[in-house]
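[job 0417] fold request received: GGDEF domain-containing protein
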Amino acid sequence: MAAHRLDRCRSIDEVAQVAASVALEVLGARHVTFGRIQQDTLRTVVIEPAPVDPRVVWLVRASYRADDRPALRTLIRDRASWVAHARTVHDEPTAPGDPDAGDPVEVETLRELDSVSALASPVVVNGSVWGQIHAVRSRPGPPFRIDDVARAEVLAALAAGAIARVDLEAQVRHLVADDPLTGLANRRIADAEAEAALDSGYETCIVMCDVDGLKRVNDELGHDTGDDLLRSVADVLSRASAALPGSTAARIGGDEFCLVTVGRRRAEVAEVMAATIAEFPLPHGAAISYGIASTAVTGSVSARHLFRQADTAQYKAKRARARTLRAAAPAAADPAVTAERVLVAGTAAIVAAQSGVVPRLCAFAAAATETLGGSAWAVLTRRSADDPPAAVARGGSPAELGVESSTAVVIHGLWQVEVGMSATAATGEIVATSLDALAAVAVLGAR
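[job 0417] inference complete; emitting structure tokens
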């Protein structure tokens, strides 16, 4: 039945609607979402049935980056389904740290929704994860079992076949014109778009971007993590491109990216770039340096010359940022004063954060790192006391531009927070105690 219904679909939207409707029925779920995954970011395409609960409405309207959702990262990287349970088959809450409960972030989300269980299966099209089918089961009801996962995977495979059929033209373009790692346009398309923009006679801007911190990430965390970082950069540029209609985001090669705009003023392009980069920081303490060249400044020039001008501006911005970070390194301070400032900034950040342990710990880590003049911060968790910690979220600024730094590790239960510190920041027992207290407030206050 599902195969016949999907075979009649003539658009991606129809495939998403049919797949969600069928999954709702065969999985006995409260609601099912069919999502699209691009540049490691998940966005909901369809949800069945239309949600009434405002908590669910907010969740499905949000977009999720794989850096913030470990289960999504696993689904993308391993092309594997996952399940998570907030309640047992006896309708009792699962124990904190129970390895059979699944990913802690997904379990916490289920608890916020007062739901029993969730599962997600990847929709793999032409060897790449195109999207996912995600189902949630409510009380009263049993957790999802292995046979439910099998049904979801069969349906995901049928949906993938339908998508491949109706999206053939886009697939051909992807093979010819897109960068295979990030899904952005490649250098050839960027050159062609720049030439067309210049021929139009409208103001043309080229933004050249470079990733600060990629080498460090490759050396310390491996090239798979480096590839994830490049996809995160692509996600940022895709968002900037969406805010500048008619523009083209492309990966030139390695850690170099560009954005080509036509008919947009340089001031508007600069504003969008600054706002987008600020709103979506890169993981692992990496950052984007960029420079802009515009025909409003250079006059009539060739595309190659405009690219060179933007590249020169990018390197100037990179050097200026390095000088700013070095100048901003705080002098050694009194430990008592430092502890007080950490407590004030951390408490304010926790109070302003969204509900849930992870958002509160992230807010605390970011505020403490900024106060202590550090670079990167991270929030990690363990399934049990004997397991190694796994990163839930990371953030901050690059640490490889000549600024010496260190890391303070704070552990509360199964949670671990790594706070970046300048080499000149005050340390000592009183500062460590303030960090421990803030971690406890973030975790215990979220329950």
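[job 0417] notes: Residues 178-327 form a domain with the Alpha-Beta Plaits fold (CATH 3.30.70.270). The mean pLDDT is 86.
[job 0417] exit 0
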